[in-house]
Design brief:
This protein is of the alpha/beta class. The protein has one domain (14-303): Alpha-Beta Barrel (TIM Barrel). Helix content is 39%, strand content 13%. The chain is built from twelve helices and eight strands. The protein has helices at 14-28, 41-44, 63-71, 81-87, 122-132, 150-166, 189-202, 224-231, 246-258, 269-272, 276-290, 296-299; strands at residues 34-38, 76-80, 96-99, 136-143, 170-175, 206-209, 235-239, 264-267. The chain has an eight-stranded parallel β-barrel, surrounded by seven helices. The longest helix has 17 residues, at 150-166. It is globular, with a radius of gyration of 18 Å.
Length: 308
Amino acid sequence: MLQSFPTPPTGITKESERRWEANYRLVTQESGRLFLMAGDQKVEHLNDDFVGNTIASDDGDPEHLFRIASGAPVGCFAAQMGLIARYGRDYPKIPYLLKLNSKTNLIKTADRDPVSLQWQSMEQVHAFIRHSHLNVVGVGYTIYPGSEYETQMLREAAQLIHDAHQLGLLAIIWAYPRGKAVGERERDAHLIAGATGLVACLGADFAKVNPPVDKSGAMDARLLREAVASAGRTQVICAGGRETTPKEFLLRLQEQLVVGGTAGCATGRNVHQRPLSEAIRFCEAIHAIVVQQEPVEKAISHLGGTQT
């Protein structure tokens, strides 16, 4: 049964309200919770996340992402519009989220405050949806609160969210405090709560954040409560982070949902760095926790006994 289903944003047509609600129901699979599969690391991390000793050889081919998203019960698959344009024709049933800004990891924060500006206009997005006939459910955009360039990103994000809602699309904001003014506080719970409140003021539907850590550097799901409260009607989802064991990932995810009060997860490396069949089974386990709200012990059964 659908839970925590918000009303559509104000100031759009009735037809856009219907589209927005249909997209929300689709990506949350009538649960009010989102399992987003992230593929935007092709730009963000270049090839670092796709080739290596512990990474499945399948991951060297961009199509691996689409094979997983096509065969797994993900709410939506986020990637750059250009990549989707190259492969989407062969995978038309995937719910796509267009990531409209991205930057590489070559310029480090120590060298310059981060800035990531929009690649495509919303007019181009509208044309792409109209002519591709793909199932595009929303758009995504990253902001870096604390960067000296934050004003540019906030302005673009606000306009993008407004225009997306006019088209009946969802808007998801990746919010990562970063820059010289932030320093070592990127994972500070109070600062992350400030970022989710900022995303709420932009009018986004979901805020994707890195989970906060305590003074020892450990993730504590209780620290998410301030961020969830600060976001209000904007739902909070956590990034999956670096590759870890399936059981550790699932236990952490359940704590974020149950203890922290988040509304889902956004997972990239922990999924696509695995061989296809293993990645799909792992997605099924994540879906069991996020959407079906199964306990970890039961969700693990989806792994088929081949993953630890």
